[in-house]
Amino acid sequence: MISPPPPADGLLRRIDHVGVAVEDLDAAIATYERSYGARVVHREEMVSDGVVEALLGVGDGYVQLLQPTTSDSPVARFLARKGSGVHHVAYGVDDVDETLRHLRAQGVRTLDEVGRPGSRGTTIAFVHPRDGLGVLIELVQDPARAL
Ligand code: CO
Fold first, then answer.
1. Which listed residue (67, 87, 138, 141) is catalytic?
2. Could you confirm whether 53 is annotated as catalytic?
3. Is the pTM of this model over 0.70?
4. E strands of 69-120, at which residues?
């Protein structure tokens, strides 16, 4: 299948969130609230990913604090390897599946073949960090932001 060229203004519409792996979600939230005055706007457990997350509003994006709920989840393995820190950067896109097709046509390695459910009703997919300059990239399609 021939994929149409990406739009002239690119595939990545905005920074949706920065994901930060933490050992203790409530302590991490308290730090962001106390030190930075940030507020939790959403909290959700993603059982399939083995995490519980809190989204704190930052401008029109978020910081996403992630605490593992199982010892073998990707975020748990990240914490064991590196400790608390930036886990991924998430970009808002118009259409996750279309974006994945564009990327794969360019030889970009993606961790998901197609979009899958993310928190707050979004559709998400991950791009391999080796094709993200060492950064795990998440693509987010948020129906609340659809034009
Ligand atoms: Co994320």
1. 138
2. yes
3. yes
4. 85-92, 116-117
